[in-house]
Amino acid sequence: GIEKEFSSFCLPLQIPLTSDKSFLGVVDLIGMRGKVYEEGKAKEVKIPKDLEEEVKKFRKKLLEAVAETDDTLIEKYLEREELTEAEIKKGLRDGISSHTFTPLLFGSATKNVGIDLLLDTVVDFFPSPQLKESAEKESPSAFVFQTLLEAHLGELNLFKVFSGALSSGTTVYNSTKRTDEKIGQIYLMQGNSREETPRIVAGDIGAVAKLKNTGTGDVLCTRENPITLPPLQFPEPNTSIALKPKGEKDEKKMGMALAKLVKVDPLLKIEMEGRNS
């Protein structure tokens, strides 16, 4: 199911550790060690005996995939020589960079399980935009993945830059809405705080306020090099509620408030039935 969703060969780097249906940690298939988490703190443990066969199975799958990224590694693997941890990591970097496979990891953000390993994986194996010298010279493209409402700023669009750089004071093309947008002040987001910055480069995430026609799911680029992406697919709502304004004056206010909520949360749908919504 996961490989069908990603249309890619998914390579597990870990196996989940569970007890009584509770997610406790993972077995690291690279370093061949277990990690359990208590209140967000990790400690190493031995691999449970009942998981040894499953660990061997997925470790073999990992080594085969890594070996196929390099002729030297495949030769060493076929001669049944043990690959070092450094060689495994190099093969993973090469395979992920070339899109040969997609790494599969396990974790829980709410329980703070495996998040440290996820971040280590991003740092150790994912390609860095800094390695691409021409990244900032490419035509800019950015994807708006969320919209927030700020008390003093109004609408705040969060975006990720995929190529080039997005700079304050420039005009870009919204290829989704087919209209131009003037980029105002750009921010780096640090939790609830914002830091002004003149531009955001490829690979980074930023925020921009007061765009007139841009919302979640839109693509910002240039008219000369328009880029389009498939629209976001949202699930259909399964819960509904009827709202009725107290009077005609309240109807307009309620409509404006609901419109703002839909921009922040695209999962919401508003339907009008007579004077009720």
TrEMBL record:
The keyword Transcription does not apply. Residues 234-272 form the Elongation Factor G domain. Coiled coil: none annotated. One of its GO terms (biological process) is ribosome disassembly. Transmembrane segments: none annotated. The keyword GTP-binding applies. Pfam families: EF-G_D2, EFG_III. Keywords: GTP-binding, Nucleotide-binding, Protein biosynthesis. InterPro entries: EF-G-like_DII, EFG_II, EFG_III/V, P-loop_NTPase, Transl_B-barrel_sf. Gene3D superfamilies: Elongation Factor G (Translational Gtpase), domain 3, P-loop containing nucleotide triphosphate hydrolases, Translation factors. One of its GO terms (molecular function) is GTP binding. Residues 141-222 form the Elongation factor G-like domain. This is Translation elongation factor EFTu-like domain-containing protein. The lineage of its organism: unclassified sequences, metagenomes, ecological metagenomes.
